[in-house]
Amino acid sequence: MSLKYCQGPECHTYCTRDRLKGIKGSKTYQTRRRSSLNYGEFCDTRCERAWLIKYATKAIDHFGRLTEVKHLTEQNAWTKDYDWHGGGDDRHHLYYFVNKITNEQRPLTEEQFNDNNYTLNTGE
Ligand SMILES: [Zn+2]
Fold first, then answer.
1. Residues flanking ion ligand 1, Cβ below 5 Å
2. Nearest alpha-carbon partner for 17 in 3, 27, 5, 6
């Protein structure tokens, strides 16, 4: 099993007991490593925030800067949601699309709900 390293640039400077590693006399505070990290590439929100502060501008310049307003229209306002339905042993989710502009609702199957590629949106 390979470990993932927290990408927080200051992770090793947060002096928590779990970061203190090594043999007696030569212990150091170290970047956290985990089989899976709770916040994607980061061990916690502090490390996530530290990365963002240090690299956000470079990342945006690399991937493309937003230079005009974006619009939520009828064509791209479909979002997935669910309600609880029934009671006791019959309690279950009812899945649906709702359009945030028109408030129109359309039923969804659980499979469609869980399919991240399934959408009614036709624009960005
Ligand atoms: Zn970290």
1. 6, 8, 11, 32, 43, 47
2. 27
- In the reported structure, the alpha carbon of residue 64 is separated from the centroid of ligand 1 by a whole-number distance in angstroms of 27
Length of the chain in residues, anyone? 124
Does the pTM surpass 0.70? The reply is no
Which ranges constitute the DSSP H helices of the chain? Answer: 45-63, 110-114
Quick: pLDDT tens for 67-100: 999 999 999 999 999 999 888 888 999 999 999 9
Output the CA 61–ligand 1 centroid distance in Å: 24
Q: Which residues pair with 99 in a beta bridge?
A: 78
